């Protein structure tokens, strides 16, 4: 009895051609749509929460947006980031070179693994924020301390990811390279690095995110400069929309940097991911 | 069909002039586990020899020792008279899991052996182009491995091995990840290529039918520790059409005989 009912039901389930092309287009952009919708919803909830208000120190979305645009055009963001990005860029550059290099060496050599890996495992587990005042004690309150704060947070995750990536290189590809008499150097450059690059880059992205935390912590804990100063200053004079705008700007800058890094990876190292 | 087990072991110490690969007293221990026990074999030049045997009997191990990818515990392998100490340009390997670089196009994968040797881009691409056409992948040069079927991926692996122009091709179960229809087509293509390329093929397979269909000589290995149990030379008229061969009485008898021999290793 159920079979004919099913047969009758199924043609009705087929959508008309006109409607299907509309839904098809919608489906194509579905991820973009969902993303926009979820961001929009987030701003709406923020606006409502700000209007209730849940705290006198919590501005609405629109107030924050206004403050953000003002600070963007009066040059205070530009000046702040010129200062903040300096230790961040230096620190990330050092961590990337050192971390990827050490990670590869640890991945290739059991001796280096035994020697170096435990240090990074301990460093990754250590509460870095608590160590930052210690750096100040040794290196003062200048650029060196802030750069060091970035390195301490970014380096372990970059090095450990690089190490895991290299250790897990597809052994069959390594055999393939050996069977065609690839040299030791060719094996590293043409097989191990491209094969490991997705995990190495995941480590770089995590390292960059950690580096942002490091530099903000340093600016809040060591000396208020750059974007950390903007936050501290506006909080001290109770300009809460400005303070939140500064925080939002950090999120924006770090998200944009991370996306740029991802785009670079796909373009340069793993072209096959562009198509599929 | 000719069963030459006795003849082979008698001739083992005398190097035969037409052997491209000679295996002499190869033993392999993995820690405490004995994988191969004193293997003596000759692989005649220009022929396709199959290594057949139960799972885990050491077929891959033997092939990788011949390739120079892993060292033997004792014994010696000679290729064209020269002892093997590592991988060499006169041997090329086709991997069971294809071993294609996912980030490289078909063209770059096929040309990779030449790229490693430092051959210039135009030259190596011209060579690769020829073998891509020979394995029937023209038009797919700029595709990535994940865009190809299993059968096509293994053709890339085969073209890459051909492109370095080695005398000896070592194939480790090249068709095991390929579906049955593609496998038959592939076997026929392989026979055509064996004929065309005049190279020595050493071929590992699980499939009795595949071994009998493709090989000039079949080496049957015993269960672990691997030893040479039997050597068979199927005498099949290869000028007949593939379908005629698969119905040939000699073919069917050889398949049956090998199965009778191997049955005792199956539990
Ligand atoms: N690297 C290794 N370390 C220890 N044991 C190994 C190693 N490689 C293979 N073996 C063992 O040696 C034996 C022979 O392995 P091998 O891969 O050569 O068999 P095979 O005949 O190719 O099997 P299959 O038909 O399943 O591919 C197996 O028992 C396997 O477990
Ligand atoms: Mg095997």
Brief descriptors of the model:
heterodimer, A: 276 residues, mainly alpha, MetI-like fold, 13 helices, 86% helix, disordered N terminus, B: 267 residues, alpha/beta, seven-stranded mixed beta sheet, four-stranded antiparallel beta sheet, 10 helices, binds adenosine-5'-triphosphate, binds magnesium ion
Describe this structure in words.
- The complex is a heterodimer of chains A (276) and B (267).
- In chain A, helix 5 (76-108) runs antiparallel to helix 6, helix 9 (171-179) packs across helix 10 and helix 10 runs antiparallel to helix 12 (240-268).
- Chain A is mainly alpha-helical.
- Chain A has 2 domains: 12-51; 65-275, MetI-like (MetI-like fold), CATH 1.10.3720.10.
- The radius of gyration of chain A is 25 Å and the shape is flat.
- Chain A starts with a helix and ends with a helix.
- Chain A is built from 13 helices and no strands.
- Chain B has 267 residues and is an alpha/beta fold.
- In chain B, a hairpin with a 6-residue loop joins strand 10 (217-221) and strand 11 (228-233).
- In chain B, the strands form 2 sheets. In chain B, strands 1-11-10-4-9-8-7 form a 7-stranded mixed sheet, with helices on both faces. A 4-stranded antiparallel sheet of chain B has the order 3-2-5-6, with helices on one face.
- The relative contact order of chain B is 0.19.
- In chain B, helix 5 (121-134) crosses helix 6 (150-163).
- Chain B contains 10 helices and 11 strands.
- Chain B has helices spanning 5-10, 59-67, 106-110, 112-116, 121-134, 150-163, 180-197, 208-214, 242-247, 249-262, and strands at residues 2-3, 19-30, 33-44, 48-52, 74-79, 82-83, 91-94, 168-172, 200-205, 217-221, 228-233.
- The model of chain B is unreliable at 6-15 (pLDDT under 50).
- The chains are: A mainly alpha (276), B alpha/beta (267).
- Chain A binds chain B through residues 170, 172-173, 175-183, 186, 190-191, 194-195, 269-272, 275-276, and chain B through 64, 67-69, 86-89, 91-93, 95, 97, 99, 101-104, 112-113, 115-117, 144-147, 164.
- The structure holds adenosine-5'-triphosphate (ATP) and magnesium ion.
- Magnesium ion (MG) is lined by residues 59-60 of chain B.
- Adenosine-5'-triphosphate (ATP) is lined by residues 30, 33, 35, 53, 55-61, 206, 224 of chain B.
């Amino acid at each position: 009895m159920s079979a004919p009912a099913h047969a009758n039901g199924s043609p009705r389930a087929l959508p008309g051609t006109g409607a299907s092309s509309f839904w098809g287009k919608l489906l194509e952009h579905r991820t973009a749509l969902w993303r926009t919708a979820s961001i929009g919803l987030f701003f709406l909830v923020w606006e409502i929460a700000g209007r209730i208000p849940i705290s006198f120190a919590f501005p609405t979305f629109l107030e924050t947006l206004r403050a953000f645009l003002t600070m963007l055009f009066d040059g205070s963001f530009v000046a702040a980031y010129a200062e903040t990005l300096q230790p961040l860029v230096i620190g990330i550059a050092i961590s990337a070179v050192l971390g990827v290099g050490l990670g590869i060496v640890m991945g290739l050599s059991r001796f280096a693994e035994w020697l170096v890996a435990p240090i990074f495992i301990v460093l990754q587990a250590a509460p870095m924020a608590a160590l930052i005042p210690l750096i100040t004690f040794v290196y003062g309150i200048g650029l060196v301390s802030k750069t060091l704060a970035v390195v301490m947070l970014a380096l372990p995750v970059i090095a450990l990811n690089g190490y895991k990536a290299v250790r897990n290189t597809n052994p069959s590809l390594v055999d393939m390279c050996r069977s065609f008499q690839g040299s030791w150097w060719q094996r590293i450059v043409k097989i191990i690095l491209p094969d490991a690059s997705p995990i190495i880059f995941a480590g770089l992205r995590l390292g960059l995110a950690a580096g942002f935390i490091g530099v903000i912590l340093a600016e809040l804990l060591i000396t208020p400069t750059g974007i950390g100063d903007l936050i501290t200053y506006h909080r001290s004079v109770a300009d809460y929309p400005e303070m939140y705008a500064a925080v939002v700007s950090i999120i924006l800058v770090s998200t944009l940097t991370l996306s740029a890094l991802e785009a670079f990876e796909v373009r340069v190292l793993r072209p096959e991911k562009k198509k599929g | 069909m000719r069963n030459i087990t006795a003849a082979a072991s008698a001739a083992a110490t005398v190097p035969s002039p037409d052997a491209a690969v000679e295996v002499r007293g190869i033993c392999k221990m993995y820690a405490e586990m004995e994988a191969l026990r004193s293997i003596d074999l000759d692989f005649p030049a220009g022929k396709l020899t199959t290594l057949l045997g139960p799972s885990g009997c050491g077929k891959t191990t033997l092939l990788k020792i011949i390739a120079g990818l892993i060292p033997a515990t004792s014994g010696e392998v000679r290729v064209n008279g020269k002892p093997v100490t590592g991988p060499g340009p006169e041997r090329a390997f086709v991997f069971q899991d294809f071993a294609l670089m996912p980030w490289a196009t078909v063209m770059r994968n096929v040309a990779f052996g030449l790229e490693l040797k430092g051959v210039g881009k135009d030259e190596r691409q011209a060579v690769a182009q020829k073998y891509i056409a020979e394995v029937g992948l023209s038009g797919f040069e700029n595709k990535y491995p994940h865009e190809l079927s299993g059968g096509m991926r293994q053709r890339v692996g085969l073209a890459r091995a051909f492109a370095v122009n080695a005398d000896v091709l070592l194939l480790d179960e090249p068709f095991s990840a390929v579906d049955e229809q593609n496998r038959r087509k592939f076997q026929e293509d392989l026979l055509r290529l064996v004929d065309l390329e005049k190279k020595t093929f050493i071929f590992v397979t699980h499939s009795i039918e595949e071994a009998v269909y493709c090989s000039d000589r079949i080496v049957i290995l015993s269960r672990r520790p691997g030893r040479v149990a039997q050597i068979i030379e199927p005498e099949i008229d290869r000028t007949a059409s593939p379908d005629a061969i698969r119905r040939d009485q000699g073919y069917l008898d050889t398949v049956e005989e090998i199965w009778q021999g191997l049955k005792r290793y199956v539990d």
